[in-house]
Write a structure and sequence with these properties.
Elements (H helix, E strand, L loop, with lengths): L2 E7 L6 H8 L5 E7 L6 H10 L4 E6 L6 H16 L3 E4 L4 E5 L5 H6 L6 E10 L7 H4 L2 E3 L7 E6 L8 E2 L6 E3 L2 E2 L2 E3 L3 E5 L5 H16 L10 H12 L5 H10 L11 E3 L11 H7 L3
Parallel strand pairs: 1-2, 1-4, 2-3, 6-12, 6-13
Antiparallel strand pairs: 4-8, 5-13, 6-7, 6-8, 7-14, 9-10, 10-11
Helix pairs in contact: 6-7
Length: 284
């Protein structure tokens, strides 16, 4: 079975290496679409990972606005023609594929039904523990998602010329009609939209203008980015506590913006080492 992922990346220097090293363990080819001109080290990190020999393909999109649906759909059709995958996995760089305890991620992906779209639910993590380690920082998550968002996995059956990946990769369509999806009971996505005060500030400043300028955007799309943007307009800097609050409230209904948190360390699911981790521990 051949599994190929698709990811648009922009200003993801704090998470890109971890994202790639986690997923190459069970994904055969990762296509990273460098969207716009990142102002951090995103492109350099992507080039370094590819130079290591990891199964990473780099594509470039100069479209300034956040036209995710059209960019990912076009990338999906190129990937289908070039790689002929059995499974397409659209992922954002802040989403980490995880499995229920005792379940092999690769086995779980290979066991998915071939005639249905599978939906992976978000579990949103909070940078609760102030530490330099991104994985250790994500020690808690929301106990419940309100609303419950999911992302789709697309088996070969649906790899047709009319395939469209909708904005956010929450659904797909064929011939203009959305295809129903079934939630997975073994796989889910660790969602890390807010990871630090500095990252939250950069996301607040840069994300919403890109969506606001999307000519195909609909009312309500990426409303969480608008909320971040407005928060950045009210204060010059974010603190650690601000980042925690913003993560708790991210993409949540107004009634669910002070959620119960549970201790469920990301490190229980994402155990790969980055180059910085290895240098710190003296590993080669």
């Amino acid at each position: 079975m051949k599994i190929v992922s698709l990811t648009m990346v922009y200003n993801e220097a704090d998470i890109l290496e971890l994202f790639v090293r986690h997923h190459v363990r069970f994904i055969d080819e990762m296509i990273l679409i460098l969207h716009g001109k990142s102002i951090d080290q995103t492109e350099q990190i992507a080039l370094q990972l590819r130079a290591e020999g990891l199964p990473v393909t780099l594509e470039y999109s100069d479209v300034a606005a956040y036209e995710q649906s059209s960019i990912l759909t076009e990338a999906a059709h190129r990937a289908i023609e070039l790689h002929q995958p059995d499974l397409l996995v659209p992922l954002d760089c802040d989403e980490f594929l995880c499995a229920r305890e005792g379940v092999s991620l690769r086995t779980a992906l290979e066991s998915l039904p071939a005639d249905r779209i599978t939906a992976l639910p978000w579990r949103t993590y909070i940078p609760k523990t102030p530490t330099d380690s991104l994985v250790e920082r994500m020690s808690h998550r929301r106990s419940k998602e309100m609303p419950q968002y999911s992302k789709v996995l697309i088996p070969r059956t649906f790899h047709r010329s009319s395939l469209v990946i909708r904005q956010g990769s929450h659904s797909v369509a064929l011939h203009g009609h959305d295809i129903p999806s079934d939630p997975s009971d073994t796989l889910w996505l660790a969602h890390l939209p807010i990871r630090s005060a500095e990252q939250a500030r950069q996301k607040a400043i840069h994300a919403w203008p890109r969506q606001r300028d999307n000519p195909h955007g609909k009312a309500g799309d990426c409303f969480q980015w608008r909320i971040l943007y407005e928060a950045a307009g009210r204060q010059a800097t974010f603190t650690h506590n601000d980042a925690v609050t913003l993560a708790e409230q991210y993409a949540a209904d107004a009634a669910a913006r002070t959620p119960d948190l549970i201790h469920d360390p990301l490190g229980s699911y994402v155990a790969v080492k980055t180059l910085a981790d290895r240098a710190e521990s003296g590993l080669q």
